[in-house]
Structure formats: structure tokens, C-alpha cells
Amino acid sequence: IDLTEGNKINSASLEAVLAGRLMANQSALSVAALMIGSNIQDAATELNEYGVDEIYVQNDSLLQNYNPDLFLFVLEKACEIINPGFILMADSLVAQDLAPRAAFRLNGALITDCVNINYESEAFYYSKPVYSGNVTAVFSTDAKPQIAVLRSHIYEAAKPVQNKNTKITPLNVQIDPSKTTMEILERIKDE
Predict the structure, then answer these.
(1) How far apart are CA 130 and CA 117, in angstroms?
(2) 127-165, pLDDT tens digit by residue?
(3) 191 — pLDDT class (breaks 50, 70, 90)
(4) Which of 79, 77, 101, 98 is nearest to 89 (CA)?
(5) Is 19 helix (H, G, I), strand (E, B) or coil?
(6) Which residue of 51, 127, 167, 168 has the smallest Cβ count within 10 Å?
(7) Residue 189 contacts by C-beta under 8 Å, 6 or more apart in sequence?
(8) Is residue 74 within a helix (H) or strand (E), and if so which, with residue range?
């Protein structure tokens, strides 16, 4: 789940939640969400309203800003715990950077710019535009996990669900800051 600067849930992430719910409804899977950041308790509580079956949270001050090494480390540890077959990411700068790293590290498959997901014969089929959008290619794979980065505005954002009591599970992954190859020296915001 991508968060905005103010630790609010990115609307594109709610589109991924809905896509995950549709996949789960077709295949009898459950939908789990992973939130990585600092001071994200309120966002996790808010996500509770959107039909996710379980929320995993890694809340650490070292994760206040996106760091590819640390976010990938947390994602990898989360996958060891959750063992997901499928990972959906909302189209964002973080996903564009993190998804290929995760697919490589987890020996999974990656489908980017995904515009549709269908379930047939106990397999998921991912559609994406190719050749400047003139053709739609359909991919399927046996690799696990299957990571799909969803194109924005293809799915509606998930709507709040009444009477949903989602389990929020802290991951408590121990992060070693010396494991990163990157240091943020300064952040400059556009005005």
C-alpha cells in the first residue's frame, strides 16, 4: 500500500485493493495488504475499512522515506511470513522501482502496466498493452509470486465495507541501517 507524504492511503492503492478483492472472489484466495513506513498506524486503521482480510504493518522510523534496499528487505521478510502467490502494486514511482527488484529477489514473475486480470482454469491471465497500445498481450505464468503493477485508473478505488474487522499484524522486522547502499542527503519538494 503506497502512502502519500502525510501518511494517507494513495487512491491508486485502493484500486489495487479492489483488484485483489476481485481476484480473491474468483479464486477463493484471501487479500492481505502490506504497509511499510513510519507513523502509519492511522493509515492501517483506515485501510481496515476497505475489505482487506489482513493487514501487515512494518512501522519503523528508518522507513519514513522510500529506500529501495530497506523496503525490499521488509517486503522479502514479509513474503517469508505470508508466502503470497500474487502481489499487486499500484502504479507509482515506488512500485516502478520496487517491483522489478522484488521479482528478481523472490524468483517471481513481473507483469507491469497491467490493465486486466482474468481467472480461468485455475490460473490468472494478465493483460497489458504493447506496441504503443495497438495490441493487448495476455500473459500467464506458473512462477510464484506473480507480481503485477496495475495501471492507474483501470479499476475503481475500493469503497469502505461495513462490518469488516480486519486483523492488523505488526511485522517487527529488525532493520539494520548499515545494509543500505543509499543515503538520503536532502529532499527537495516541488512547489
Answers:
(1) 16
(2) 999 999 899 999 999 999 999 999 999 888 888 887 677
(3) low
(4) 98
(5) helix
(6) 167
(7) none
(8) helix 68-82
